C-alpha cells in the first residue's frame, strides 16, 4: 500500500518535541484527553491518540541496548520507523511525543511543536528526575543552543514548525489550546467537499 499524504489522511500527525523536561508527555497527554472529552461521536470529531516513542523503543525493542552513562536506550532508527509504520502512524491521528523529530518522514508530519524552557527551570526539572550530571549537562546544552528547534526547521517546512514556551502550567494550558485550535482548523481545511 502506498503511503498516505496529508491530503489523503482524515486526521493530521503532530510531533510534540523538545529537550527532556520541557513537558512533551504532559502536553501530548493533555491534548489527547481534551480531544477525547470534546469528542461527541459525530462525523467531525478529532479522535487522536498519544504515541510515546520512548514506549515503542522499549516495548518493541527498537534499540541496540542500554547506554549506562547517559541512562537511555540506544535507538535503532530503522526498527523504530518500521514499528511505527506497523502501528499505523502514517495513517494520521497521532500526537507523537519524543525528544527528536528529524527521523520522521516529512510526509507523515503536519505540525511540529517544539517546546522550550528557560535554563534554570529545565535544570530544576532534570535534577528532580535525578539525571546523571553528564546527561543533565548535555540536555541543558541542547536547550541553550536551540539544537532541537534548528533540527525541526532543517527537517520540515518552516511553516509547520511552531516554537512554544513551556515554563509554567499556564503556558502548557495555553499551548494545548493553540494546538487544539490548529487541529480544528486542519479538520475544516481537509474536510471532503
From TrEMBL:
Region (LID): 128-138
Catalytic reactions on record: AMP + ATP = 2 ADP; ATP + H2O = ADP + phosphate + H(+)
Top EC class, one word: transferase
Compartments, record wording: Cytoplasm; Nucleus
Organism whose genome encodes this protein: Zalerion maritima
Entry EC number(s): 2.7.4.3
GO MF assignments: AMP kinase activity; ATP binding; ATP hydrolysis activity
Family classification: Belongs to the adenylate kinase family. AK6 subfamily.
The protein, known as: Adenylate kinase isoenzyme 6 homolog
Keywords noted in UniProt: ATP-binding, Cytoplasm, Hydrolase, Kinase, Nucleotide-binding, Nucleus, Ribosome biogenesis, rRNA processing, Transferase
Binding-site positions, ATP: 21, 23-25, 129
